[in-house]
Amino acid sequence: MKRFRPLSLLLVFVCFASAAYSQANAPLKLSQTIPLPGVEGRIDHMSVDVKGQRLFVAALGNNTVEVVDLAQGKRSRSITGLKEPQGIVYIPTLDQVVVANGADGTVRTFDARSFTTISSLDLGDDADNVRYDSTVGRLVVGYGDGALGIIDLKTHKVISSIKLSGHPESFQLEKSRPRIYVNVPSANHIAVVDTAKQAVITTWPVGQFRANFPMALDEAHHRLFAGTRNPARLVVVDTEAGNQITALITSADTDDVFFDQENRRVYVSAGEGYSHIFRQLDADRYQPISKVVTAAGARTSLFVPELRKVFVAVPHRGRQESAIRVYDVP
Questions:
Q1: Domain spanning 32-163: which CATH class is it, in words?
Q2: Is 0.85 surpassed by the pTM of this model?
Q3: Do 32-163 and 166-299 show the same overall fold?
Q4: Residue 17 in 3-state DSSP?
């Protein structure tokens, strides 16, 4: 038996070295955990002020927006008095934060320095995801039983409403043409909106992949990524033809998907307690490269390419404290 000992030691060394190499070259590395003491309930979406190093967190279940100082690694303040904040976006040119509230249907705009209210617009029931169209200086907000509200940031008024077949979840805006792709899970399809025509021009059924909530876009390769919950998949769609390219297995309860153009990766966060990373080999082929353990209920996240970081929102559950986990992207 003794003559095998050097080989055993060699195998142990090789395994240890491989594990160390794998950790050093992991696509996501946990670098920091920022506590959110006293924050209860579900945490929804996030936005970031890159220049000011601030993260804005829509703490839906807590009826607050948590402002996190990324340079100091701590919460700097809470915006209170909200009603189930869901969608949130920071407007860098105006230094303003816009919050969509699900419970009262308001879209509230705050000065991002004093945090005083600039405007409060009654949009409609279940005001949800928010996007900023910088090309025209307008907000797009999903709300109600099925509509996108277009809001002028100068007047803080709704200038148009685009009808959908059901409540919109995540949606993405193209930059090269006037298109918005919208997940409409109750209708089991993706709606394609022409903003010049202010109308839905076609819909793409998601078929057996139901509950399509999060979405990301690779505009350069004409690929749309829709996360579904039943079954748990990442569905890749050709935005030129509307057909499904492939469907990749993920964990349950996905709520955010992001495409990393520089590294050609897709990041998927799931409430089951994992984040999945897929490598884009080409427009039609994708390879799972990592399944990162996060936390129970950590289904929302934010990828910030300028900072090379992924922020994952962790809710309070039992002994698990609410926090923002910060992952570096090598």
A1: mainly beta
A2: yes
A3: yes
A4: helix
**Residue 130, both tokens:** 């928010």
Report the alpha-carbon distance of residue 66 to residue 50 in Å, rounded. Answer: 16
Dist. CA 328–CA 326, nearest whole Å: 7
Q: Each residue's pLDDT tens digit in the chain (330 positions)?
A: 444 344 444 443 433 433 333 344 678 999 999 999 999 999 999 999 999 999 999 999 999 999 999 999 999 999 999 999 999 999 999 999 999 999 999 999 999 999 999 999 999 999 999 999 999 999 999 999 999 999 999 999 999 999 999 999 999 999 999 999 999 999 999 999 999 999 999 999 999 999 999 999 999 999 999 999 999 999 999 999 999 999 999 999 999 999 999 999 999 999 999 999 999 999 999 999 999 999 999 999 999 999 999 999 999 999 999 999 999 998
305 C-beta neighbours (distance < 10 Å), count = 14
Domain 166-299 has CATH 2.130.10.10: yes
Domain boundaries, the chain: 32-163, 166-299
